[in-house]
Amino acid sequence: MSRKNNTRIQMTTSSQDNINLDNSEITLKQVIMKFREWYRYLLSKWVIILIFILIGAGLGFLYSIMKKPIYTATTTFVLEDEKGGGGLGNLAGLASMAGVDLGGGGGGIFQGDNILGLYKSRTMLQETLLTPIEVSGKQQLLVDRYIEINDLRSKWEKTPKLIDVNFPLKNDQNGTLIPNRLRDSLLGSFINDLNKKYLNVTKPDKKLNIIQVDVKAPDEIFAKAFNDALVKNVNEFFINTKTKKAIQNVRILQHKTDSVRNVMNGAIYSAVAVADATPNLNPTRQVQRIAPSQKAQFSAETNKSVLGALLQNLELSKMGLLKETPLIQVIDQPIYPLSVSTFGKFKGLVIGGFIFFVVIILILIFRKIIRDITSETRVEV
Questions:
Q1: Which long-range contacts (CB under 8 A, 24 or more apart) does 233-238 make?
Q2: Element (H, E) at 140
Q3: What does pTM read for this prediction?
Q4: Which single residue of 32, 104, 352, 366 has CA 20 to 30 Å from 331?
Q5: Contact 292, 274 (CB under 8 A)
């Protein structure tokens, strides 16, 4: 009985495997037939597909003609910056004699890649936009050039407040712009647009301190002028900030040195003046000459010692200033003609035709699927 049961089980298993194989073959056949059906269906719509391809190619060709060329102005420079206190820490003890702190300088204000963020800051970009340039013998602000190349004035015709806005407005006594809500709002939108579409600041090699600043714009003059002004403003701000404390120390020491020198010189002249004032002094009245003379001489000697220490600290402070000053050496600057990238006509034809080809294929497939589902529903009803 067991053998018969085993034989039946084996026959049943083999028959089930055959059924599964038949089902798989049928499914594969259905897929192939479905593919042929879709192919014939799309082939029957070749006229519609061809029309859409031609429309897409035409629109792509038109876009390539209307698309403005993009000019790229590139500046690369190397930044060498002394890191850490180093030698300045050794000078701090000597300078403390004069009450001056030599350590730190610019400190950690700009370390690592922070200068890259400085290039995209609102302060630097706003200052650059308000930089005047000369175009065809006329002075023009970069912000006005930006408005011109983007044709913003025509877009503002329906808004009188925007039409009347001018850059810059009246300056205050410190030379900075008087706050104005509308103007500041426009500058903010310009700066956001510049950061997104125009400006790119990178370090091509993370191991090196080479920084690359790219400005891309549809106007060649704006791209070069904005790049030059931005690099100049940021680098000057960077150097001034890094050396601000060291410069203040040098000025303080210089002022103290000059003051002590003047006091010492005055004491020396006072001692000589006392001697000249008593040429035939009575020997019994030496106090009239010796006391003032020795007092002036003591003052001169004291100030001489202080002056020597101050001069030493002044020179050390100047050395510290040189150490704190970062070296920024420009490697390449943008020159005319700038590199230009255009959207080719052939590229426009191919991309436009391909996009519309994909779109019409998807539309036809979706339409047929909906039609098949609707027809199956009707048959079942």
A1: 233/124, 233/127, 233/128, 233/131, 234/115, 234/118, 234/119, 234/124, 235/77, 235/328, 237/118, 237/124, 238/110, 238/115, 238/118, 238/326, 238/328
A2: strand 138-141
A3: 0.65
A4: 104
A5: yes
